[in-house]
Amino acid sequence: MSSIAVVPGSFDPVTLGHLDVIRRAAAIFDQVHVLVVHNPGKTAMLPISERMNLLQKSIDEDSTMPKNIVVASWSVGLLVDYCTEVGAGVLVKGIRSQIDVAYETPMVLMNRSLAKVETIFLLPDPAHAHVSSSLVRQVAALGGDVSDYVPSAVARYLDTTRPA
Ligand code: PNS
Q: What is the mean pLDDT of residues 34-48?
């Protein structure tokens, strides 16, 4: 039986840290679904369709990215419902610090309790430890250069949508 993992997130926008975790997950599992999920706790910058578009472009333009990656979105029901629908038994989360572990732990236990879906944590390259979508949004909104933190598809998009 093939192993399928889901890498869920807001990806608003996708960062180099996200791509690093996706690449590592794709080297472990037969198939990886990168799932754009609406997080009601956050005010979104980009619509889900644009986040998916930028994710797909970033993956396609990265020659080091394995080919076993699917980009999808989920906006109705539980994350574990998506896992059940596609036959995924594992969620993969990127962890930058103990703060991420503390934030993720209740969700890990809830997803296991709801549907026996396990979660594994992957550590990205420490070079990305300070990179988050929320800081990228903030730096970009204040006119800063985010090209060291995001794939070039995202940097191009943020450049072209920057208010004059
Ligand atoms: O990139 P983010 O915003 O940290 O991603 C958070 C996300 C989307 C992974 C998280 O909000 C989530 O798991 N949402 C799914 C909602 C759900 O199923 N909740 C119940 C069980 S925890």
A: 93
